[in-house]
Amino acid sequence: MPQFSRIAVIGVGVLGSQIAYHTAFKGYDVVAYDVDDDAVDRANTRLGRLTERYEQEVAGAGTGARDAMHRIQLTSDVAQAVASADLVIEAAPERLGVKRRLFSVLGEAAPPHTVFATNTSTIPPSALADSTGRPDRFLALHFSNLVWRHNIAEVMGTPRTAPDVYASVVEFATSIGMVPIELKKEKPGYVLNSFLVPLLRAAGELLTDDVADPAAVDDVWRIGTGAPYGPFEMLDIVGLTTAHHIASHGDVKQREFAKIIKERYLDKGWTGVEAGQGFHGYPR
After folding, report:
1. What is the C-alpha to C-alpha distance for residues 142 and 194, in angstroms, rounded to an integer?
2. Taking the CA atoms of the chain, what radius of gyration do you get in angstroms?
3. What CATH number is given for 6-182 in this structure?
């Protein structure tokens, strides 16, 4: 394994829980932090469901799926989470102010050697670097949902990221079974979301303009391209809370889409795959 042995994951939502679990599944000790005891309880439930999915979907998982849970420590104490961390992976909500405040706290609490990575999908890492207090030991490490299946990890530094730090994060990504995608410069959306976000935006506009419903849009995309998921299925996987937040900060059409998400789905508790209902229904 690379120089990292103790990993902290900050934020244990849909994707954060996957990052924490998969890292533990690959043999690392992980401390996973969320904001309060209720959030930690929800994270524990997510991790339990991931155990079941790995047993069902990951070839050769065997007892390793259960063993992974024993390598994860959950906490609502942020200082405890990073006290001995070699690598901190932040997966907090996609809000610049939230991430900057969080990295400021992490920078004070973590040891000087600790490397910080953000999983942000839209915020350039340079916008966060100063808040860490260690811009040379900071970069972006972006995972895709369903990490055990869609196993890319996009690595994007800033002009101030130390080359050895960048290389060590690439090595770490490889060690947990990811395919590291090394970006040459900062690009909001990285590679994956530079393609994906326009697709999801177009799907939202088709619904907002009452051109077609989610089932029809997804049928067109899957049947017409051979893709495994349609755009609304992708949004359900990401989670409609995240989709709503991103759309709320878009243009007029996107803000209309955000209103639809809230009124037709979120207000009913339909947050996507995790809840068993989003744009589509999912067996629990």
Report:
1. 13
2. 19
3. 3.40.50.720
